[in-house]
């Protein structure tokens, strides 16, 4: 984002507020000085626990329950820490350089080449908004059923109720964005507290109906079983999805620990807990009903089956709203990085409108579960190789020396070839192709998954490609 763009449409009141370090918002490529940083380690721990304590995490826990309970624990223990180590490595770069995640890709892919990951980042955050909105709209449909006796999702006429729910959620998204990032943080923390209480409540209720021994002994029907490697890819992609947003926070951190260890710890705690609960309640519902359906990991369906009432649906709606406020803001900022003349507020409205349209798609094309897994595959496919290249470039090739004054120069250090680092772009394309080639092979899908092996191979390829011409 250029300095000219950053200076456009700023009122006198906004300028005066931006002189205050607590209110200043830095552009994507504008480094945050150390003396202007206000985020502590406790802030980062709370932020990333909250980021993962949401309905999407709960949902994916139910999806990997198709492995059986103990193997699903192994997947969570293996895949998530690796993903969050990667996130911490990128977070440290943001801390040291002081710029946003998408601005960091300018250093590796070039000033123009960074448009590629920026476009993908805009798409993925719109996608996550759609995922969370769909889940929340199901809760809205149950509320409308209880109040007005409208059909719920899955019943005849339920799609109409879902459309109403999607509309309600989109309005809530716009309202939450309009309140600003400080009020969003407050609401998010309240929502996380409520959903933690809900999860404890659900856990107690589910164990009143089924025993832990039954959960350990449960096996999915053969046609619903999920290969271990495929589950690794689903979980890795789910966790890696946060990496493109990490530097937006760590560039404001006061210390290295706050930028690395605390988000990594918070993310692991939040995700492990909520995937665990998602798996337990989904298996519990399968045992109590005699029917296993991965779509039953949807929190709204579980809340309905357990009879937890209106309050539980409201908690799901609130937490979806707060999570999506962050998703939409990240998506909108990425969009303004692609189109510098696009102002921030219209960009936020635009991505909110697009997300609402995307949310409607699963109602008419395939099942939500299938589209959800395809979406996760996409994230792992494109972002794994991107961050393998960024990490290799920063830690192994450039000795951690960066010049942020060159980020906006057309003929500067990061211009490369007409604005593109062709080596990075080509190696990234090879990484994506490798993911597509390997993910369905027998060994990969059964044991390791494709995401992390492809990231390792991509990093090695880029190291030697860049070293050769250095």
Automatic annotation (TrEMBL):
The organism of origin for this protein: Pectinatus brassicae
Alphabetical keyword list: Membrane, Transmembrane, Transmembrane helix, Transport
Signal peptide (from-to): none
Transmembrane segments: 58-77, 83-104, 125-148, 160-178, 190-208, 228-249, 261-286, 306-326, 347-365, 371-397, 418-438, 444-465
Compartments reported by the entry: Membrane
Protein name: NCS1 nucleoside transporter family
Major location category of this protein: membrane
Family: Belongs to the purine-cytosine permease (2.A.39) family.
GO molecular function, a single term: cytosine transmembrane transporter activity
Pfam families: Transp_cyt_pur
Gene Ontology cellular-component annotations: plasma membrane
Topological category with respect to the lipid bilayer: Multi-pass membrane protein
Lineage top rank: taxon: Bacteria
């Amino acid at each position: 984002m250029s300095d000219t763009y950053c200076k456009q449409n700023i009122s006198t009141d906004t300028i005066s507020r931006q002189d205050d370090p607590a209110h200043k918002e830095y552009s994507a490529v504008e480094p945050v000085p150390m003396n202007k940083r206000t985020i502590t380690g406790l802030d980062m721990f709370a932020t990333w626990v909250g980021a993962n304590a949401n309905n999407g995490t709960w949902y994916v826990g139910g999806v990997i329950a198709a492995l059986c309970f103990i193997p699903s624990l192994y997947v969570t223990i293996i895949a998530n820490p690796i993903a969050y180590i990667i996130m911490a490595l990128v977070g440290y770069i943001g801390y040291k350089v002081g710029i946003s995640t998408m601005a960091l890709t300018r250093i590796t892919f070039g000033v123009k080449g960074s448009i590629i990951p920026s476009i993908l980042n805009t798409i993925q955050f719109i996608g996550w908004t759609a995922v969370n909105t769909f889940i929340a709209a199901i809760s809205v449909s149950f509320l409308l059923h209880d109040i007005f006796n409208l059909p719920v999702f899955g019943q005849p006429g339920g799609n109409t109720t879902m459309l109403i729910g999607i509309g309600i959620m989109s309005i809530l998204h716009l309202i939450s964005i309009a309140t600003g990032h400080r009020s969003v943080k407050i609401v998010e923390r309240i929502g996380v507290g409520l959903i933690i209480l809900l999860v404890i409540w659900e856990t107690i209720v589910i164990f009143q109906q089924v025993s832990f021994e039954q959960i350990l002994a449960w096996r999915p029907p053969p046609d619903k079983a999920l290969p271990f490697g495929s589950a690794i890819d689903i979980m890795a992609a789910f966790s890696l999805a946060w990496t493109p947003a990490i530097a937006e926070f760590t560039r404001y951190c006061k210390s290295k620990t706050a930028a690395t260890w605390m988000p990594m710890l918070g993310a692991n705690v939040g995700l492990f807990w909520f995937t665990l609960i998602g798996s337990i309640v989904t298996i519990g519902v399968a045992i109590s009903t005699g029917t296993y359906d991965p779509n039953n990991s949807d929190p709204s369906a579980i809340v309905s089956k357990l009879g937890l009432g209106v309050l539980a649906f409201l908690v799901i709606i609130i937490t979806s709203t707060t999570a999506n406020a962050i998703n939409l803001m990240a998506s909108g900022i990425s969009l303004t990085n692609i189109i510098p003349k696009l102002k921030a507020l219209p960009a936020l409205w635009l991505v909110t409108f697009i997300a609402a349209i995307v949310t409607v798609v699963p109602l008419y094309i395939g099942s939500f579960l299938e589209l959800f897994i395809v979406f996760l595959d996409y994230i792992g496919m494109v972002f794994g190789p991107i961050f393998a290249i960024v990490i290799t470039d920063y830690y192994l090739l450039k000795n951690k020396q960066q010049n942020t004054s060159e980020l906006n120069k057309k003929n500067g250090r990061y211009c490369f070839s007409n604005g593109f680092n062709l080596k990075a772009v080509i190696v990234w394309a090879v990484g994506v192709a490798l993911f597509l080639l390997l993910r369905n092979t027998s060994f990969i899908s059964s044991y390791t998954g494709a995401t992390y092996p492809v990231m390792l191979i991509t990093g090695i390829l880029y190291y030697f490609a860049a070293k050769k011409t250095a």
